[in-house]
């Protein structure tokens, strides 16, 4: 999936993946897509909940070799 | 003031002693809705940490001024983050739960149920998850029933009391938590007992837990009683004709569910026969000790979860369903969601898969949900 920006949050524990995601998306424009890579298992449900509460669209997520990938479209 | 660290044991003692406790739970709403720290004296509010990253000002009016605020999250990172924000904002009395809900899920509180010849019976209350395990001791020997995977709790307890653990027993193949029975038996060179009917796919050696094969611990006799229904092998344990360990068949406020191995329809009649015939023929004076509780209110004065069998025949609604068809509906329809990762948990308990420690902890997250409600 095409992303305008990629955030590497691998190896970071809660709350850092979301702190960094929030920061990264702040500098983006509405409609742009941010790809996030994380290894913290809690990131999945927290990113889903965070995206929903901020109105952002979590377009896709997948796991490969212990890394979780998320694509979020900024509201 | 600095952010204070609170251990799960300190929080457990507050909950059990009904001391005031204010909790700010910063997990996401779904996690909080699913499972949280509860108790008569507990007040909790939920604000996800990701709504507090830019500041806690909006939250301040909702916090009590004169109480300690315990911040709780899944593991602890986010609660430390929010706790420090609160202190920066001028709140004085702030703490966080060390290890978060994971540590809460793993904490066991041992409470004495009563005396036995040459010893006593203890209930290990896993407050965060609602699981109950037991230790029988007599004349320096011990047996552990339905052990959790945190086996150091039992070995430490036994060491402190100078006991040798001779046997571990599972009343059935568990689907809601990872059993420590086999690992504990291996560690202490004891015998691991499991009902044969549940062990068809088990990959390691075990001794059959079955009627007629009593187990003696010091002066105490543990008598297996076949009582299928939650699983086909579910076996209750009568201890010295005084206590009845019912596993996941009969609880204080509810009854077991027959569906966790995908066999609801097949096992309904077994469950009904156990509850409406087999147990009914037993002495009403027996003290029922289940493998689960679902509400903190089920903990009695001393923290023990128990009830006399005759009381349950009066009050437990699961024992008052006249019609078989209605009973069938009750235990097969509109059941609560199945426990987290229950298939993987069953396979782990059979020895078919061996997840690492971190994965095991993750698999057990959430409530146990072994009862119909």
TrEMBL record, chain A:
InterPro entries reported for this sequence? TusA-like, TusA-like_sf
Gene3D superfamilies, A to Z: TusA-like domain (3.30.110.40)
Q: Which Pfam families match?
A: TusA (PF01206)
Q: Which CDD domains match?
A: SirA_YedF_YeeD
Query: Which domain of life does the UniProt lineage start with?
Result: Bacteria
What protein family is recorded?
Belongs to the sulfur carrier protein TusA family.
Q: What is this protein called?
A: Uncharacterized protein
Say which species the protein is native to: Guptibacillus hwajinpoensis
TrEMBL record, chain B:
GO-annotated biological processes:
glutathione metabolic process; hydrogen sulfide metabolic process
Residues in coiled coil? none
Name of the protein described by the UniProt record: Rhodanese domain-containing protein
PROSITE patterns given in the database record: RHODANESE_3
Q: Which Pfam families match?
A: Lactamase_B, Rhodanese
GO terms for molecular function, please?
sulfur dioxygenase activity
Which stretches make up the Rhodanese domain? 17-113
Membrane-crossing residue ranges in chain numbering: none
Cross-referenced InterPro entries: Metallo-B-lactamas, Mito_Persulfide_Diox, POD-like_MBL-fold, Rhodanese-like_dom, Rhodanese-like_dom_sf, RibonucZ/Hydroxyglut_hydro
């Amino acid at each position: 999936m095409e992303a305008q920006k990629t955030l590497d949050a691998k190896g970071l524990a809660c709350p850092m993946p979301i702190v960094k995601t929030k920061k990264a998306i702040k500098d983006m424009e509405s409609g742009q897509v941010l790809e996030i890579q994380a290894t913290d298992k809690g990131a999945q449900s927290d990113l889903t909940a965070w995206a929903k509460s901020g109105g952002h669209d979590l377009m896709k997520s997948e796991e490969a070799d212990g890394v979780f990938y998320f694509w979020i479209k900024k509201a | 003031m600095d952010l204070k660290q609170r251990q799960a044991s300190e929080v457990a003692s507050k909950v059990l002693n009904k001391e005031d406790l204010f909790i700010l739970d910063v997990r996401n709403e779904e996690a909080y809705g699913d499972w949280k720290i509860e108790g008569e004296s507990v007040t909790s509010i939920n604000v996800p940490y990701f709504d507090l990253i830019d500041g806690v000002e909006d939250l301040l009016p909702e916090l009590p001024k004169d109480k300690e605020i315990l911040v709780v999250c899944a593991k602890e990172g986010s609660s430390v983050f929010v706790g420090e924000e609160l202190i920066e904002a001028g709140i004085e009395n702030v703490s966080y739960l060390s290890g978060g809900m994971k540590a809460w899920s793993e904490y066991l509180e041992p409470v004495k149920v009563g005396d036995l010849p040459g010893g006593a019976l203890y209930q290990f209350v896993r407050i965060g998850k609602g699981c109950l395990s037991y230790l029988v001791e007599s004349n320096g020997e011990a047996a552990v029933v339905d052990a959790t995977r945190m086996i150091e709790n039992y070995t430490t307890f036994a060491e402190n009391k100078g006991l040798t653990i001779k046997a571990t027993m599972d009343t059935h193949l568990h689907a809601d938590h990872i059993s420590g029975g086999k690992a504990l038996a291996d560690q202490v060179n004891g015998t691991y007992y499991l009902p044969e009917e549940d062990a068809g796919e088990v990959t390691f050696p075990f001794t059959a837990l079955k009627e007629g094969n009593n187990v003696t611990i010091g002066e105490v006799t543990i008598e297996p009683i076949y009582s299928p229904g939650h699983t086909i092998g579910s076996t209750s344990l009568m201890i010295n004709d005084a206590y009845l360990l019912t596993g996941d068949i009969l609880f204080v406020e509810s009854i077991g569910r027959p569906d966790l191995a995908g066999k609801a329809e097949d096992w309904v009649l077994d469950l009904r026969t156990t509850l409406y015939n087999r147990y009914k023929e037993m002495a009403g004076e027996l003290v029922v000790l289940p493998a689960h509780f679902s509400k903190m209110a089920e903990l009695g004065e001393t923290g023990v979860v128990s009830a006399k069998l005759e009381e349950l025949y009066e009050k437990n609604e699961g024992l008052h369903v006249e019609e078989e068809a209605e009973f069938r509906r009750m235990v097969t329809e509109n059941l609560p969601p199945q426990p987290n990762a229950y298939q993987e948990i069953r396979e782990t308990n059979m020895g078919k898969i061996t997840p690492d420690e971190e994965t095991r902890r993750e698999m057990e997250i959430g409530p146990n949900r072994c009862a119909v409600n």
